[in-house]
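User: I'm putting together a teaching handout on how multi-component assemblies are represented. Below are the sequence lines for each component of a complex, exactly as they appear in our records. Could you produce the 3D structure of the whole assembly as structure tokens, so the students can see both representations side by side? Please keep the chain order the same as the input.
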Amino acid sequence: MKKRRMYFKMITASLMRRRSRMIVALLSIAIGATVLSGLLTIYYDVPRQLGAQFRNYGANMILTSTEENLSLEDVDQAVSVIKSGDVVGVAPYRYENVRINEIPVVAAGTQMSGAKSTSPYWSVEGEWPAQNGELMVGAKVADKFRLKQGDSIAVSFTPDEKDTNDEVVVDSSIDFKITGILDTGGSEEEYVYMSLDDLEELTGDKGIVNIAELSVSAQSDELIAYADTISNSVSSVSARLVKRVTASETTVLTKLQALVLLVTIVVLALTMICVFTTMAAVVAERRKEIGLRKAIGASDKSIIAEFVGESMLLGLLGGILGTVLGFIFAQQVSVNVFGSSISFRPLLIPITIFASMAVTALSSLLPIRSATDVDPALVLKGE
Amino acid sequence: MSLLELKNVSKIYGELHALDNVSLKVEKGEWVSIMGPSGSGKSTMMNIIGCMDKPTKGEVLLDGVDISKESSKNLTTIRRDKIGLIFQQFHLVNYLTALENVMLAQYYHSIPDEKEAMEALERVGLADRAKHLPSQLSGGEQQRVCVARALINHPEIILADEPTGNLDEANEKVVVDLFHKLHDEGTTLVVVTHDPEVAEVAQRMIVLRSGRLSKEVVNRNFTGKIKLEDNN
Ligand SMILES: Nc1ncnc2c1ncn2[C@@H]1O[C@H](COP(=O)(O)OP(=O)(O)OP(=O)(O)O)[C@@H](O)[C@H]1O
Ligand SMILES: [Mg+2]
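Assistant: Of course. Below is the structure of the complete assembly, with chains in the same order as your input.
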């Protein structure tokens, strides 16, 4: 017991009282541990971050009908297949030809909150419609009719002639207040967006849509499984994936993780070289002390035990330092690159500390081995 | 049986005979000094007796064991159990305190015992410097710590290679007085020295020349304790 106390006293004294020397070794270990823990944090957090990132690029699943029209019940049924936590947003869309100032325009009826989450990249000048009677106008439509936010316009609808036979065709019409101009750079700019309720009132029939867009938080194989289940279990619905986004998400993820891993390995190797040279220098510098210890009776085993203990202690300190700095580093990267903070993983603490101790001990092995070659006679002679 | 016996010991480096057919007996409790010009083989002989080197030829019996045939691992054990070493340069571990340096010898020998280590420091008059690092001690004080360390495990024999070589007269006297005390307690002492005054106080003086024993002088005036009291 007493012996162990003396052992710890010695190895701590060696680090504490020879501070300037050991600080170099400690720094190199701490830097290695920092990069290790930082990169590992990023490595584990990247899927989450990138998932969120890619979901910003909109819907990744589209539901269509296998028959003519999709009913809202079908959509609900399909969505219920997906784990509720994975559903980021659902936006059903119904498209109808309407007229503004007697000129035909395509109107899209949707649930605004759903559309907002499946199309987060849409930039709206003004506000999204918040209630019935409010309209969002595509930029091209707004140009054509010289409309701006706050304007009121009437949108009218003429029922299909076939359906009404020879009776007098009666147009329905609703007055809308324009709340925002939609700017996407795509075909959406040619539509006007209103609530599904308004469009149903205008057309007079309810409960059907053309497509539904879904944003689902899942990896590509899970997504494929969801789509298959939906297509199979809800017979009137066909689910297909928006391939470009989901596939690239996985590719980018794999490549990024491979890169992070590679950098980690390189950094670990560099740390090992650094620790190796530092420990070799330390052993060379302490040849006299080693000889003295041997002269007063230290066995090779106790010399090795002392140096291993010192290097493990260094590894421990460097590991603790590195865990803290690494988290800060990962946090900075996350905030600057992904714009969101990172989730802390407690498991990384023991992993980093253990890796740092193992790497330090491993790279000290050769220098320590050479410590036992010291000839105590040289000390007595005064080398 | 003598505590130490060298039988026709030679140490040869290439062409050079650092020790050339040396035979010597040291009895238990004896105090022997070894003199001789630089390069005459004094340290070489001390290294061999101290189990840190092996002779090229001959036998070295320490307490009946032929140490010239032992493995280096066994030599470490013998050195730890039977020998106390004092060097010319005051070799201390520079990041351990005086007390810890003494305890280090206990640590390798058996179990560190702070009380006993403190007593050893008291014997050399350094109780109040126990917590000082070597860099905070004078040369004389450092050498006294080395003496405390050498005697802490009650070795059969203390080997000192020019223990006063770097000391002034006052400190030299402190160390020599310590040797007197150790001798009175029955410790065997072998002391290499260039200083005739240090050599003369021993019971017997041996002179080496070019690796050979050239002279042996028995000190008829040696009076042990009384001599020490005279000095005081
Ligand atoms: N490892 C070695 N290799 C070759 N020659 C050596 C070695 N060690 C000692 N010698 C030689 O052996 C001779 C005796 O050396 P030793 O150190 O025993 O002398 P010494 O009597 O202690 O001298 P000093 O009073 O200067 O300390 C010297 O000529 C020295 O050069
Ligand atoms: Mg010498």
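A couple of points students might notice: The two ends of chain B are 35 Å apart (CA to CA). Residues 54 and 68 of chain B are 6 Å apart (CA to CA).
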